[in-house]
Amino acid sequence: MQKGKGRGAAPKASITAAAGANNTAGNSIKNVYAQRTSGLILPEYRLPTEAEWEYAAAADVGQREYNTYKGQKKYPWSGSYTRSGKRQVRGDQLANFKQGKGDYGGIAGWSDDGADITNKVKSYPPNDFGLYDMAGNVAEWVADVYRPIVDDEANDFNYYRGNVYMKDKIGEDGKVELVTSETQKYDTLSNGKIVSRNLPGQIAQVPVDDKETYLRQNFDKSNNINYRDGDKQSTRYFKLGASEEGDEKGKLRDDKRMYDSPQHNVSTDSLGNMVKKYDRSNTRTTLVNDQVRVYKGGSWRDRAYWLDPAQRRYYPQDIATDYIGFRCAMSRVGAKADKKKRAKN
User: pTM for the complete prediction?
Assistant: First the structure.
């Protein structure tokens, strides 16, 4: 996992269609600007799932003595306290967090964490995986859509909520279709900002249909954010056998929603002016919906309780703050370690 603040300008590395010596007059050379985020150089960056983030933050490998876990870790570092017990730095704070009411920096001396707001990376020791600031400084986004209860008793293998399965769009000629400036789609976020869903030159994506999901055991529709979201008796939507939560026009109805959250609406009038309609109903019972994501880790403005990697909170995914950041992950197939370590006799 790599620490990041966002996607900046990527270095442009010119890649030709073929080696210069092998090009013929009929093969024109086309430049492709390779980026790390494009997946041409490295696997594509993404947000870690909640299970991945928690595994990386806890770093329980440091508590292993041969094949026995000592179980003495509450935070990403060893022990159950926010201050170091090592001889060289005994008493030093191990993270940047809020130690008391109005106390963002701590008491001068050993109890001072050295920062009242965010601090630079590597100001505190790394965890046993070599990762810095997995607790404190800034909290971090993960990819999971928030639900109050994580169904990890039955699904604890890389548990993730948020899957939306897509496939390449095939045209009438049997070839994949590419996104053009005419077919490019945009989304309006809950805060009114307009963002592009895809870019020209990418392969167009469409949701999977019943041809792909027929007789599948793991999923039966494209959008699986609400998969097994509580039993039938606990949900407001209990129409057995329905394919989607909505009426015949596909519009989600209030009496069919899993969570009774506010429904704000952003639109434009005939003159192109933005019109924001706030849902000011006093009958709403929750803020949980499919647009809130989990964030973990605690920050400079959080108490020590939130430094525990197991704690979890949520926030609307379209809203930025001064205390939530993120770090990137890349998918890797295979075992956790390249070489199996054995005990030294």
Answer: 0.78
